[in-house]
Each structure stands twice: as C-alpha cells, then as structure tokens.
TrEMBL record, chains A, B:
It holds the Pfam family Pyridox_ox_2. InterPro entries: Pyridox_Oxase-rel, Split_barrel_FMN-bd. This is Pyridoxamine 5'-phosphate oxidase putative domain-containing protein. The lineage of its organism: Bacteria, Bacillati, Actinomycetota, Actinomycetes, Kitasatosporales. It comes from Streptomyces hundungensis. It comes from the Bacteria.
C-alpha cells in the first residue's frame, strides 16, 4: 500500500464541511485511513424510492478505494449494478472512545472518531479485483485470516456482488478529552470526567464440530 | 413505560422485509426495544440535495418514540424543523456481538443485532416534551445520570433542537451462533468459531478540575 502520510488532504467540499464544530473536522488522509483501518463495520446510506435507507454492512479499504459485498440479490448491490452511472451512497464509520460526563446535562457528550464518505458506488466486474476485494473484506475483520481459510469458488464468486467506492469526498470528525463545563458549573457536586470505551474481546469459542487438534490461531489470541 | 411485552409486533412493510436472510428478521417489539435500549449511538440517514447523508448521533427511546438532539444549526435538525410534513429519515442501530470465522472465506460473518427504523422526523416544540427528551438522551448513555447533573437552562434549551421519530415501521435483524460451513469443508485445517465481542469499559478518568472529594458514582462503577 502506498505511503500516503505526506499526501495532500482530501479536498473539503460543501457537504464535507460540517455546519457545527468545524474544529473537530479533518481531511487528513493518514487520520482517515487510521479510523477506517481499525473498523470493519460501516453504515451505508442510499436512496430508495426517494427515501433514505441505512444498513450496517462490512467494508474493507484497499488504498483509496472501499469495498462492500453482499448477495447479488441484496438491494443496494443490485441497485449499484443496475444504476448508471452507479449508486449515490454515503458510507459512515464510527468509533466510540468514551462517554463524557459533564456537570451540566447540556455538556454531556461522547468521545468519538468518525469518517463520512460521499460518492458513487460501482459494481466490481473485474474478476481479479473482485477476488482481491473479498480477501480484503475478510482481512479487514481479522487481519491475516484470508490466507487461513478456503478461498472462494467460482460459484461463490458468482453469488457475491462487490461494489467499490473511491475515497474522494471524505471527512473525519473527532472529539477527545474531558468535559467542557461552563466556569460557573465547576463547583457543582456532580462527578465529571470520561468513561473510556474500547472493543472488549472474549475468549474464542470453537465451532461445535471443530477438530480439537486445531489450536486458536495467533491472530485471534493477539486481540 | 407501558408494558409492551404482549403487544402486537410492528407490521412488516415492503421496506422492512429484507430481500435476503428473511429468517434473521424480527418485528417483535420487546426484541426491538431491547436492542435500542442497550445502545445510545445510531446512524441517521436523510436525503440532502437528492443524495444520501449518514451521520452518527446519540438517540434515546421513550416508549414508542425516539429522540435525537443537536444544535439548532445542525443540518438534519434544521431540515426537520423546516420540512413539512417533516424529514424522511432512516435510523439504524447496530450491536456487533462476535466475529464469525468459518473454514471458507465465503462463510465468514459477524454476529450482530440491528434495528432499522423508517419514518418521518418532526421537531419537538412542546417545552415539556423537549426537556424530557433531553433527560432521556443523557440517561440513554448513562442510566440515572440526568438526575445527577445540572438541568438545562432556558438558554441551553433554546440552543438545542430535538427531533422525534415514532416507532411505526421498524424491523430488527439478528445473527447468532457459530459458522455455517459447507459439509465438505468441515475437515479443512482452519480454526473455526466465534470471537465474542462486547463493549469494554476502562477506569473512569476524572476531569482535571474535579473536586477530589467527589467519588466515582455507582452508575459508572457498575458497568
């Protein structure tokens, strides 16, 4: 993957400049990639019969392109394949890092990192790109896993649709740190601070029919 | 809050019946309420200039109504207040409960519980409902917290917009359990099973300017 740390930021557009808390917005590629790469779930928005639809789905990033997959019968994937020039989407990824408790109800907040991508999704038709995208989707959830599983068959590939969304119109938004109480509230007798939050992984649960000789792989125990 | 455990399920509509994995869908009110009540973050979708927008935001449930708040200057809140008869939205809540590793790349999945609400959002103008909604928004994140913080002033109430969305067109979707590998893959030498996932809370971090005499409240230590 290309080193993008010195690359130009994503250009700010009318719809990626927030109306509120502009100081929380960022267009830095490295920052955006970092938020995306530590996630695998996104919320994909599209318009169907004039109304918005938001569905949770897995995604993967490969360079400056995101991939989403699903059954060839799933609505957004069918729509992206049929629509010309593609399907207008908004793809949003959010990490919650902490609950922010202020003395005042008004200043309660959460610490978060989010990325919003606007663009047009297209069906991936090139067989090689499609296969690489499906590997990336597995590896986005569990890095390294695609090499430790049975690759997709031609039939499975045919049953799966993949759509791509290029990272052109992209913004990140972040909040961190403690509560921002008003000066006159600092003496109030309410605890104030942050309750940190991070994904908590449990012990891996082997499949009922798993050969007991197969140990839990290191890419899981490392989490 | 009314006991809804014996209430009729939400009616299935064209847009709440999924095209795929219909057996994973549910319209049970108690199930839907349970998924909503253990969350506080939603992804709100709406249409702006013909294109979809998906933003992460806090929400609260009170009975069969959801509330969202924000600055009176924020786009969706402004749009809901100005639009007649309101703003068409899709509000989605997702919990990820586990990563599902199958022998085949194709059968990788995640265990999740999600709720999708379609409807029209309206600005809350009644002062009493607005105040109760703001309390509910604080309590949705940290139950009991609204009683242990300084209530909103008239000025703060005026600076905050609240929109409501009734639970009419609602569906839940769930996946649980282990991987569903094909019979011919069961002997492959790849570990298969589930990596459970749940929110992990860290130690509460007091605000820099907090009076050290104020102990961490029980509603935080209980998490």
């Amino acid at each position: 993957m290309a080193d993008t740390s010195t690359a130009a930021p994503y250009p700010a557009t009318d719809r990626t400049v927030p109306t509120r808390y502009r100081e929380r917005a960022s267009y830095d590629r490295e920052l955006v990639h970092g938020i995306l790469d530590t996630a695998y779930l996104c919320h994909l928005g599209f318009v169907r019969d004039g109304a918005p639809v938001v569905l949770p789905t897995l995604f993967a990033r490969v360079g400056e392109r995101l991939y989403i997959h699903g059954s060839t019968g799933a609505r957004p994937l069918r729509a992206a394949g049929q629509a010309d020039p593609g399907l207008a989407v908004c793809l949003t990824v959010t990490h919650v890092d902490g609950l922010v408790l202020a003395r005042s109800a008004f200043h309660h907040s959460i610490n978060y990192r989010s990325v919003v991508v606007h663009g047009t999704a297209h069906e991936v038709t090139d067989p090689r790109e499609k296969r690489e995208a499906l590997d990336a989707l597995v590896d986005q959830v569990v890095p390294g896993r695609s090499r430790d599983s049975r690759p997709a068959t031609a039939k499975e590939l045919a049953a799966t649709a993949v759509i791509s969304l290029d990272l052109n119109e992209v913004s990140a938004k972040l909040r961190s740190g403690g509560p921002n109480d008003d000066a006159e509230d600092l003496g109030l007798p309410h605890w104030a601070g942050v309750l940190p939050l991070a994904p908590g992984y449990g012990e891996p649960v082997p499949a009922d029919d798993l050969d007991p000789a197969l140990a839990v792989p290191e890419y899981l125990t490392a989490r």
